[in-house]
Description:
Elements: H1 8-13, E1 21-25, H2 29-41, E2 53-56, H3 58-63, H4 65-73, E3 83-89, H5 94-102, E4 110-115, H6 123-130, E5 134-138, H7 144-157, E6 161-162, H8 164-174, H9 178-191, E7 197-198, H10 200-207, H11 210-214, H12 217-224, H13 227-239, H14 244-266, H15 271-277, H16 287-296, H17 299-318, H18 323-340
Parallel strand pairs: 1-4, 1-5, 2-3, 3-4, 6-7
Helix pairs in contact: 4-5, 7-8, 7-9, 8-10, 9-10, 12-13, 12-14, 12-18, 13-18, 14-15, 14-16, 14-17, 14-18, 15-16, 17-18
Amino acid sequence: xxxxxxxxxxxxxxxxxxxxxxxxxxxxxxxxxxxxxxxxxxxxxxxxxxxxxxxxxxxxxxxxxxxxxxxxxxxxxxxxxxxxxxxxxxxxxxxxxxxxxxxxxxxxxxxxxxxxxxxxxxxxxxxxxxxxxxxxxxxxxxxxxxxxxxxxxxxxxxxxxxxxxxxxxxxxxxxxxxxxxxxxxxxxxxxxxxxxxxxxxxxxxxxxxxxxxxxxxxxxxxxxxxxxxxxxxxxxxxxxxxxxxxxxxxxxxxxxxxxxxxxxxxxxxxxxxxxxxxxxxxxxxxxxxxxxxxxxxxxxxxxxxxxxxxxxxxxxxxxxxxxxxxxxxxxxxxxxxxxxx
Length: 341
């Protein structure tokens, strides 16, 4: 069963009764974790229940298909459905999963697989899309408009409404990782206890420079032409498991804003005026840095930078070169363009 992105949350929350395997995959690691947990909680609320939940590693299941079958066939001593979870699934699991799906054990146990960004050539993804007893749920990085809707919905769960400029600022600074977005929304909701409406001042007071700067740090360094800072930021972000697509989308967003700002300079605005006019608003601690970048770049070089970012994202999806290598090369090329200015 190939699940469309628009139906992903609904299927994860309540997989059809004939589904025995749910594969959750994609470049947004936070969203993969969130939807994987949603699917798991369709079986039981307490995911730490040792009688009803079995955790396996992908390589364990791949090397011992009989054990995977036994875990799916086992009965819970306390009664109720059983859940089997594999959080590091990859194509090496395909053969064992094919054997399981060909003749699944009786019962209603559910196997939930969480994986990274599986391309169209992935055997594991293809198997789960083609089998009637499996569902493949994609987790793509949300664009700012989509994330804005998610932010509104998450805050509504806490009984809060949000002003448009605050929502846009949050969406612009949290795009790329649903898990990060949810954590920051929960923190914001705690700050807003006793109040009903979130404004831009509330957002800036709570989110501060932690979430807003973390993902954009490499893009900011590249726009400054600071190669050592680019290298340091990428090493840290890669070590934290940040998606390369999320990083490239962050760079794209920043360089589009620079393009808009430089266009304003061409129409007579000062760099400071252009920064103030950008929407969503630039984080106040970054205003001087962004103004300096507007002086550094031109429209032709910004267009070249945006073209390189788009090419890099395409290479991540269709080539066999490691994603981190492609991403790092693109950021260093951006920084080199800035240094030439």
